[in-house]
Structures are given as structure tokens and as C-alpha cells.
Description:
GO terms for molecular function: calcium ion binding; calcium-dependent phospholipid binding; phosphatidylserine binding. By secondary structure, this protein is mainly alpha-helical. Helices cover 76% and strands 0% of the residues.
Amino acid sequence: MLDLAERDAIMARDAIESGAAADYRALVEVFTRRKQDQLFFTKQAYLARFKKNLEQDMVTDPSHPYQRLLVALATSHKSHHDEPSRHIAKCDARRLYDAKNGGGTGSVDEAAILEMFSKRSIPQLRLALCSYKHIYGHDFTKALKKNLAGDFEESLRVVVKCIYTPSKYYCKVNNRKQAVLHLNLYYYIAGP
């Protein structure tokens, strides 16, 4: 039986090789739900099993909407054990608000988002998203949904949901999977 790091390493390799959005979503779940020490062991298991660097494979893989976000999360070296700062969270909430508007271009300022994701821990990002809702009166995902411009914005929505409201995110994922299973069962029973 595989340990958690080896399982995550295999799942990461499958996601990178397939390039499917569903596989990348699984990889997002790994990078947003695991602590830095667990991610370190996943990267080591990936290197041992595939003789390649996980971060390098994610960068050299053909471009995918989730790719830049995953690389930012993977390169973050902030500890999950540090206490999140409310002051930084409020500043980040303002940066998210400004980045959402993309300087008036209508699309999200990717550089600002990627910088924040690469420099903040998941608990700090979660607090920033909570501050955003407190200050602006709505979730950051709702703001993104209003002006969806492309694949990056949709990928960002998925990552933010996984960080900010993981239970709600996993509930929706589970409901979708059950709906697909019920549909497949219906067609299996009903026949062609």
C-alpha cells in the first residue's frame, strides 16, 4: 500500500501527463490541503519514483489554466504553523480587489494573484479571503464569476473555493460524482 506522499506523487504525475482539468483539480486539492512538510515529502517521492522534479515537470508541461496557480502554490515556502496576520490579510484583501479588476482591463491581474499565492501560506490566504468578504460584502469567487474573462479566472475560482470553503467545495465535487454515477447506472440498467 502506498503512503500519502507516494500516492500524491503518482496522482501529480497522472495529472501532468493527462492534462485533463479533472486531474488538475485533484492536484489543486493536494496543494491546498497538504501542509508544507507533507508537500516536501510528496516532491521527494516524485523525484525518487520518476527521477524528475515535480515543479519542473509542472512548468515544462504544455500550458494549462491551472498550471501557473499550481506552480505558485508549489513554490510557496511559508509555514502553515505561523499565525496568520490580520493586517496582512486586510492588505491582501485590497490587493485581491484591485487584481480582480485588472487595472480596468476587465480581466484578473495574474501577476498580482500569482505573487500572492507564491508568498502566502494557505491559512494566510484563507484569512485574506475571509477579510475580502468582510470588507466588500461578498466572496471573492462571486466577484470572479461576474467578470469571468478566461480559463485563468475559472481556474482561480476553483483554487479559491478549495482554499476558502473546502467543505462546500468537496460537497459539490461529491454531488457531481454521485450524479454521474447515477446517470451511468441509469444507462446501464436501461440499456442502449
